[in-house]
Amino acid sequence: MKPIDETSAADTPLSDFLCFAVYSTNLAFGKLYRPVLDKLGLTYTQYVTLVALSEADGQTVSGLGEKLFLESNTLTPILKKLEAMGHVERKRDPENERQVRVSLTKSGRRVREKAASTDLMSACGLTPPAFAKLQKEVIALRDNIVHAVKDET
């Protein structure tokens, strides 16, 4: 018999689901970034793509997809849109024609810098050490879930 204070999974309220807490926090982050990104004509996914590309020029589409946790069929339209906006450049790898390499343009670097103005620490209401600790914990949570999903397949 279960202790009386323990509820069954079917009776758990939405507010007690960790997955919902993470999901709704993600939505809140989107609202935080929206004013800045709207001015720049970017979606959040386009913005994080620019951030990832700012780490190194000439990344492969597949490597970029792994970094962003995006499948190629999701990432390719994002890259095409960013290229049409003049923020990225895509080129076939001369050593391996099957690979496409992506780099930020000067415009892409400027836009990435402008979008970085959002003060996350202040919005989160955390001290720098608490912010860093939470970020490490969320990354560990994500990595554990990714690992668990890989183990199931």
From TrEMBL:
Q: Determine if Nucleus is one of this entry's keywords.
A: no
In terms of domain of life, where is this protein from?
A: Bacteria
Give the UniProt keywords, A-Z: Cytoplasm, DNA-binding, Transcription, Transcription regulation
Q: Which GO terms describe its biological process?
A: response to stress
Q: Which PANTHER family match?
A: ORGANIC HYDROPEROXIDE RESISTANCE TRANSCRIPTIONAL REGULATOR (PTHR33164:SF5), TRANSCRIPTIONAL REGULATOR, MARR FAMILY (PTHR33164)
Q: Where in or outside the cell?
A: Cytoplasm
GO MF, one term, reads:
DNA binding
Gene3D superfamilies per record: Winged helix-like DNA-binding domain superfamily/Winged helix DNA-binding domain
List the protein's name.
MarR family transcriptional regulator
InterPro entries this protein is in?
HTH_MarR-typ, MarR/SlyA-like, Transc_reg_Sar_Rot_HTH, WH-like_DNA-bd_sf, WH_DNA-bd_sf
Record keyword Transcription present: yes
- Report domain HTH marR-type positions: 15-151
Record-level GO cellular component terms: cytoplasm
